């Protein structure tokens, strides 16, 4: 049932002059943290803007808690706290307290207690002008306001950008507290691998407008391994799961299905000398390389068909 999902993308896509996002098929259950990772220009912000209906998809359907945008757009958006990748309301010359007063009016579930606690933890001066805040202070403000809305879904686009280490740790702690009831959902776009390690239940890898993979973080960590073998195994690249081979005193294999790779090595009588987890950024690198090869092969095939 669609109403069991906090977020549901069914073939949703958006085309621009030089970029296309999707079609995206993605289902996110309530009560989890999903990290969306990908290089700049991969479509993370556009994905979030489609989710918020700031950008309307050209195709497909997006549902939030089982509802598609329409006449109930206001009600749906009141259930979402959003930290965009840029600031807002600077041109009005508002102070923080004026901005909070304006925003809280539109959110019936606004929690003055939550706002007070967060503004104190992040050392936000209510009389400070938003336009004069540093980038890091603006991120503190945006995050605090989004959480104070008491949303069911928190959407964070690079929320730690510009934060110092102290404020970053506070933000992570507040996200954990936000998730404590087990019913709220967080979608976070990040370049910070440590945020993925500490927070994410699921990881979505995005590149060139395409969703390359979406899996449980712990499953990814189990599946992806770097293996070292003492033999110079010429057929190593053909083993199941192997995405990269480096020859040396020990042959280094990177696999996205490590258990299958090890089974094949065992059947070939080759012992694994060492194992190591693959970092998430390295996983993304190998996925991008594979996608580029796929695109290149597709281009060659189309060229041959049109000869």
UniProtKB/TrEMBL annotation:
<dbReference type="Pfam" id="PF00005">
    <property type="entry name" value="ABC_tran"/>
</dbReference>
<dbReference type="InterPro" id="IPR003439">
    <property type="entry name" value="ABC_transporter-like_ATP-bd"/>
</dbReference>
<protein>
    <submittedName>
        <fullName>ABC transporter ATP-binding protein</fullName>
    </submittedName>
</protein>
<dbReference type="InterPro" id="IPR051782">
    <property type="entry name" value="ABC_Transporter_VariousFunc"/>
</dbReference>
<dbReference type="InterPro" id="IPR027417">
    <property type="entry name" value="P-loop_NTPase"/>
</dbReference>
<keyword id="KW-0067">ATP-binding</keyword>
<keyword id="KW-0813">Transport</keyword>
<dbReference type="GO" id="GO:0005524">
    <property type="term" value="F:ATP binding"/>
</dbReference>
<dbReference type="GO" id="GO:0016887">
    <property type="term" value="F:ATP hydrolysis activity"/>
</dbReference>
<keyword id="KW-0547">Nucleotide-binding</keyword>
<dbReference type="InterPro" id="IPR017871">
    <property type="entry name" value="ABC_transporter-like_CS"/>
</dbReference>
<feature type="domain" description="ABC transporter">
    <location>
        <begin position="2"/>
        <end position="233"/>
    </location>
</feature>
<dbReference type="InterPro" id="IPR003593">
    <property type="entry name" value="AAA+_ATPase"/>
</dbReference>
